[in-house]
Write a structure and sequence with these properties.
267 residues, 6-stranded mixed sheet, 4-stranded antiparallel sheet
Length: 267
């Protein structure tokens, strides 16, 4: 079976407080993005994992897809499988690609082997893999709190707009990004701000990671300003970076000078 695991963007990302367990309480809006990795599961004689497309840097641990398989295999008698992952979503970009791959693999295994796991149980498994993973089980716009794993549905539709994502060749480690951010318990009323027209978001919706990341990597700040220069109604870094997206009222022509980066034009 094959699944197309989509990316996400964060519309606003507010770090509210640091928790006793070392994590941070957040407020953000997750929005699914039409940018996809491809995940395939085939029964095999032994558990295998194959990767094509963008290489994933070795981190000393198992790929999240393998972790997702073993998580379910601990509770169910799953046969060995060969997992194929074709990687298109950039790594270290704040687009949630690894989390999406793992979550979609959970759903694939659930369907392929008729495990009869409902959405809440799938989300419980996904939480064990990472804070972003449960979002991709439901995979619809959500206002997220907690460590980014508590979701309320939110009414937002960007389908009339065009989204451009630009990813510089800079990898941002999440733990590094958190060391550069100062929690703000007051917040900035993200949930009410999102109800305003997209053109007004520039002065109302913010990503708290931008200040620290931009000071260390001014090239990322320049990409955000470049998107506004192209006519974006709203531009922001997604998650802890390094990808930056712009929301446009109509399709935009990206100059050749920007082609030094990975550029994705999405409807």
């Amino acid at each position: 079976m094959i699944a197309f695991a989509n990316a996400k963007i964060n519309i606003g990302l507010q770090v509210v407080s640091r928790r006793e367990d070392g994590y941070h309480n957040l407020e953000t809006i997750f929005y699914p993005l039409n940018l996809y990795d491809v995940v395939e599961v085939v029964e095999a004689s032994e558990v295998q994992f194959s990767l094509s497309g963008i290489p994933i840097p070795a981190s000393g641990g198992e790929n999240l897809c393998l972790q997702a398989y073993r998580l379910l295999a601990n509770d169910f008698k799953l046969p060995p499988v060969h997992i194929y992952l074709h990687k298109v979503i950039p790594i270290g970009a704040g687009l949630g690609g690894g989390s999406a791959d793992a979550a979609f693999l959970l759903k694939l295994l659930n369907n392929q082997f008729q495990l009869q796991l409902d959405e809440p149980r799938l989300m419980a498994y996904a939480r064990k893999l990472g804070a972003d993973c449960p979002f991709f089980i439901r995979n619809r716009p959500a206002f997220a709190t907690g460590i980014g794993d508590v979701f309320d549905d939110i009414s937002i539709d960007l389908s009339p707009y065009h989204i451009v994502v630009i990813k510089p060749h800079i990898h941002i480690a999440t733990e590094t990004a958190y060391r550069m951010v100062t929690p703000d318990p007051a917040g900035r009323q993200l949930r009410s701000a999102i109800a305003h027209p997209v053109a007004s978001w520039k002065n109302m919706i913010f990503n708290d990671f931008e200040a620290g990341i931009f000071s260390k990597h001014p090239e990322i700040a320049a990409i955000k300003e470049m998107l506004y220069g192209y006519g974006a109604l709203f531009a922001s870094m997604s998650g802890s970076g390094s990808a930056v997206y712009g929301i446009f009222s109509e399709k935009v022509s990206i100059p050749a000078s920007a082609k030094q980066y990975d550029v994705f034009q999405l409807d």
